[in-house]
Design goal:
By secondary structure, the protein is α/β, with parallel strands linked by helices. The protein has 2 domains: 187 residues, Rossmann fold (3-Layer(aba) Sandwich); 62 residues, Helicase, Ruva Protein, domain 3. Helix content is 39%, strand content 18%. The strands form 2 sheets. It has a 7-stranded mixed β-sheet, with helices on both faces. Helix 4 links the parallel strand 3 and strand 4. Helix 2 crosses helix 3 and helix 9 crosses helix 12. The longest helix has 17 residues. It is elongated, with a radius of gyration of 20 Å.
Amino acid sequence: MQKVRAKKNLGQHFLTNQNIAARIANGFTESAPNVILEIGPGMGILTRHLIRRPNADVRVVEIDHESVCYLMAEMPELNGRIIEGDFLKLDLPALFGKPISVAGNFPYNISSQILFKILENRQMVPQMVGMFQKEVAERVASKPGSKVYGILSVLLQAYYNIDYLFTVNECEFDPPPKVKSGVIRLTRNKVEHLPCDEQLFVKIVKTSFNQRRKTLSNSLKPILQDRRCDLPVFRQRPEQLSVDEFVELTNIISEMLNRNI
């Protein structure tokens, strides 16, 4: 019981259904790197299925010391492959030096931070398969025009192809969460650099969605200030724009800023 309490404090819920664990492990495509880093393995239900993948080289990162001790005792095949620490603080290039796959049943309370960490290390992580709160999974995979389309949707879809794989019910966990979960796959696309000022792109996406009910001419005032924005795109709301349209918008605004118009 002490272990469960400790993990609950980290926002973790233990998956108990072996079939679902197998489906997550099998969610990787053939192009995924054989080195797989699992985040927050807990008691290893997903880990066991990842290890069974052909040619898999599985490493795990776990912040909870009791879980680390459990894994060391129960899964000797992980000897020397357990990183006790916080994934959000890992230097992935220094640790691995080559691309890796990422997997996990991610703690709800840091799931967005994990996704941003993967985005920052997109050259290191060509593929990820993971389980999130269903709302987060749907948001990441949503398309323009959806009510849940937002910052994560645009920024991740700029560099990844995203597949919503399946939904997991509350009863499949111990303790059961109050919401359903969703499993998604991120696969790196061919975009190395966006054809725009990428820092400005991120700033525009975040600023526009901070007031998503407003048109872009209003939500982007902190960036535009008093500049005229007569183009039709500025009469739209952020959830109406695709990644390519945000890139185009970034180039328009960049020219406005540079010309001071």
